[in-house]
Amino acid sequence: MISDKLFALRRRAGMSQQEVAAAIGVSRQTVSNWEQNQGAPALDKAAELARLYGVSLNDLASDEVDVVSSAGTRAQSDLHVLEAFVGAKDATISLSGDEATIQHAEILEAGGGWLRIAVERSTALFGNPKTKREHVIRLIDLDDVLSITMALAAAPSAKTSETEGA
């Protein structure tokens, strides 16, 4: 929900509702209402919020994108190592905070303080023993990432010819 994202993004930015309101030209009560799911920002204000928080408007508005962040702003990380993981399809990401590990993640992007990943989520269906599987995008605060590990593909076995060297 956009209300949850707005709260998490504001907290990550280390800003008060009043500071956000002043930055985008609305009242503190308006920001509070958005965070309590009592309305949503108009498109122009949503675009300003996305810029303020360093995310795309699509990520802010999409119900398929989750924000994972446990703390406020800290020092910016050096991303050159993380960029090598972009495109990896079976990563395990260890996080600080409540959510300890994310497995089988595809790393889509690293930058702007965020690690953007795709994961498959299973949701129980009411009154049905089956689960619904869906792909979701998660924006993970880079400050929450403790480690990333990759599953190594098995090396092809070396075939030697019996006639070699004969």
Automatic annotation (TrEMBL):
Claim: DNA-binding is one of the keywords in the record: yes
Record-linked SMART domains: HTH_XRE (SM00530)
Keyword annotations from UniProtKB, A to Z: DNA-binding
Residue stretches making up the HTH cro/C1-type domain: 8-60
Keyword DNA-binding: yes
PROSITE patterns reported in the protein's UniProt record: HTH_CROC1
MF (Gene Ontology): DNA binding
InterPro entries: Cro/C1-type_HTH (IPR001387), Lambda_DNA-bd_dom_sf (IPR010982)
Name of the protein in question: XRE family transcriptional regulator
Organism: Collinsella tanakaei
